[in-house]
């Protein structure tokens, strides 16, 4: 067969024993190594000449998002191949998995040459519905992006967060009546900081004699991410009592302690955390005491404590898609089932934006199926749009011609055009007591 006939539709995952043979994993690693070698040597040599097994063709590896996905797959493959190497008793299979481990480490070293730096600051511009920039530092939000070795996949500002933050800033998604928000998987903090900024502006325009009770609890799995969020909160002048509260949260640990998954005992822990937490902590900081003392979300105090739960790009593995709906239901406040409440209060909401990756339709389907099992959370809206489509729709509503647009909006439109991926945004709303 020719190389084109041997292509897989998704990267070969090492899961169950009979899921993917080592040949497909090795073939994909060989292809990836050839692609990276070509980039290094500025060569156009075909990367498929020597491949004789089914493989996945990595495309646009120079693109930052594609490179990050590639890096995650290689790290995951190295870890799982190591387990297979140790488990298999047959000499031939042992040799194959050993080769996969060695090749994965070689490829990881090549990918690292094109990876992210240790950390960098990024300024994301945001606009209000009328086209003016938000009243924040420089008209946007500052975030601190960590390297992969420090924060795994949480160190990058993903485009799903950019899209959702924009929509909230423009008021397309109205959060003005909400007061207590929690973000699941905050990463660099763009989404949470945006909401905190808007909460602060709402409080400033309200009665000055009344103390604001608005707060955004920003959660993630790694202490290094929480530390970076604290730095970002200070940079955006949002860190303080009643504004932003960065907190550690392991979804599966919380689900276990809150007894949310008793009927899903067979579900294994996710494999999305490719680096060991303690290892990342040591790489990022020698101050272990600071990491150990990081605040953790309390399941007792957090049950029903929030009227807004948000998340962006968190539907990465099926295991996560099973626990996130239950966790959101647990954290989200119940409502009073009477007419007076309906006319005076905003219903608690769970808002999620996720990229529609060709490799992750199973995860999207699992999430939607799990959400459908929660009778008190109804789907208020669901829409698919690329960043470019979202921006174009908004721009058409505020400008009669391109000449009327501010230069920063034009620059954003050029940047958005580089990302053709669609993003799905869900808004679930609490509809009554369970």
UniProtKB/TrEMBL annotation:
Q: Which organism is it from?
A: Coemansia umbellata
Pfam families linked: Methyltransf_16 (PF10294)
Protein name stated in the entry = S-adenosyl-L-methionine-dependent methyltransferase
Q: Which residues cross the membrane?
A: none
């Amino acid at each position: 067969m020719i190389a084109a006939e041997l292509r897989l539709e998704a990267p070969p995952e090492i899961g169950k024993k009979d899921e993917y043979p080592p040949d497909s994993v090795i073939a994909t690693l060989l292809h990836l190594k050839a692609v990276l070698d070509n980039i290094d040597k500025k060569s156009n040599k075909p990367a498929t000449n020597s491949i004789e097994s089914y493989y996945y063709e990595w495309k646009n590896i120079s693109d930052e998002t594609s490179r990050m996905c590639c890096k995650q797959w290689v790290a995951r493959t190295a870890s799982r191949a190591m387990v297979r190497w140790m488990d298999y008793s047959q000499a031939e299979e042992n040799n194959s998995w050993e080769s996969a481990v060695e090749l994965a480490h070689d490829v990881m070293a090549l990918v690292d040459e094109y990876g992210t730096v240790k950390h960098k600051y990024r300024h994301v511009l945001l606009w209000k519905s009328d086209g003016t920039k938000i009243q924040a530092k420089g008209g946007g939000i500052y975030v601190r992006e960590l390297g992969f070795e420090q924060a795994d996949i949480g160190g990058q500002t993903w485009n799903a967060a950019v899209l959702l933050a924009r929509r909230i800033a423009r008021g397309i998604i109205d959060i003005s009546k909400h007061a207590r928000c929690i973000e699941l998987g905050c990463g660099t903090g763009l989404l949470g900081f945006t909401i905190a900024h808007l909460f602060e502006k709402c409080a400033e325009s309200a009665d000055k004699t009344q103390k604001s009770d608005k707060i955004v609890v920003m959660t993630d799995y790694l202490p290094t991410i929480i530390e970076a969020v604290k730095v970002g909160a200070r940079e955006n002048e949002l860190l303080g009592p009643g504004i932003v509260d960065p907190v550690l949260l392991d979804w599966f640990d919380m689900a276990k302690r809150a007894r949310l998954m008793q009927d899903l005992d067979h579900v294994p822990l996710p494999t999305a955390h490719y680096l060991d937490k303690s290892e990342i902590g040591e790489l990022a900081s020698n101050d272990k005491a600071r990491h150990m003392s990081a605040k953790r979300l309390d399941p007792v105090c957090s049950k029903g404590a929030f009227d807004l739960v948000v998340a962006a790009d968190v539907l990465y593995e099926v295991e996560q898609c099973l626990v996130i709906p239950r966790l959101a239901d647990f954290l989200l406040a119940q409502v009073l089932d009477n007419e007076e409440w309906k006319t005076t209060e905003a219903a608690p909401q769970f808002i999620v934006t996720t990229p529609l990756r060709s490799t992750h339709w199973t995860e999207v389907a699992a999430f939607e199926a799990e959400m459908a099992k929660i009778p008190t959370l109804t789907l208020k809206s669901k829409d698919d749009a690329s960043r470019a489509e979202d921006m174009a729709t908004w721009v058409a509503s505020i400008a009669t011609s391109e000449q009327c647009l501010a230069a920063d909006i034009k620059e954003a439109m050029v940047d958005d055009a580089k990302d053709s991926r669609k993003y799905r945004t869900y808004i679930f709303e609490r509809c009554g007591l369970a």
